[in-house]
Amino acid sequence: MICVSLRSGSCQECLKALESLDFAELRLDLMKITLADIPILARSGKRLMATCRPGPYSDALRKALLLECIRCGMDLVDVEADADEEFKTDIIGEARRRGSSVIISHHDDDQTPTRPELEAIIARSLEAGADFVKIACRANSASDSARLIGLLDRPQCQGRLIVVGMGVFGSITRVLAPFLGSPFTYASLEEGYETAPGQIGYRDLARIHRDLRGILGE
């Protein structure tokens, strides 16, 4: 399954993009979306994930946007593993009350940590209440990507762990991970609209996945 990360535009532009998609991540920190827009987007009938990374907005506004997404019935909400504990607890608690699934995500823009370090992050995230754990790291070599893919061999992680290699070396993880136990992977709407380095355009990734399913007889 492919989740398309949407990163720019107004509410109306977002709705237009959603017309051709089944599953999308709303990168609220990269969009021009207000609290009043959230119910409109939630009524699109699409499977939606709400994400609002630190940066342009205060933590108070980030929390308000994510809580509104949950209250309006969005399917998933992403919260950073290193977020303030109160921030994280409030988001997870509201998601539990409203029936949304929680992704706890770890990002390393510089490198891919060792396997023991990554396994510790996954364990802490699951203990904190994650329904899914996302590990997104800069892959500086083929072995970094292999290490990320290798995390999917853990039985307790099957169907719950999303691995993403950022950068050129990491692109292969975006192709293979869904075939090896990851519940989904991320793509950009099209070239030039990436939300992370190494992200592949939706149409290209969908075509590659169709070809792979044909080879595998799926």
What does the model show?
The chain has 218 residues and is α/β, with parallel strands linked by helices. The chain contains eight helices and eight strands. The protein has an eight-stranded parallel sheet. α3 runs parallel beside α4 (85-98). The radius of gyration is 17 Å and the shape is globular.
The helix/strand class is: alpha/beta
Q: What's the CATH H-level superfamily name?
A: Aldolase class I
* CATH structural class: Alpha Beta
Radius of gyration: 17 Å
CATH topology: TIM Barrel
β-strand percent reads 15-25%
Number of domains: 1
Low-confidence stretches are none
How many H/I helical runs?
A: 8
Describe the biggest sheet?
8 strands, parallel
Distance linking N and C termini: 13 Å
The helix-strand sequence is EHEHEHEHEHEHEHEH
Describe the secondary structure blueprint for this structure.
Layout: E1 2-6, H1 11-18, E2 23-27, H2 38-42, E3 47-51, H3 59-71, E4 76-80, H4 85-98, E5 101-108, H5 115-127, E6 132-138, H6 142-150, E7 161-166, H7 171-176, E8 185-188, H8 202-216
Parallel strand pairs: 1-2, 1-8, 2-3, 3-4, 4-5, 5-6, 6-7
Helix pairs in contact: 3-4
List keywords for this structure.
single chain, 218 residues, alpha/beta, TIM Barrel, eight-stranded parallel beta sheet
Brief characterization of the structure:
This protein has helices at 11-18, 38-42, 59-71, 85-98, 115-127, 142-150, 171-176, 202-216; strands spanning 2-6, 23-27, 47-51, 76-80, 101-108, 132-138, 161-166, 185-188.
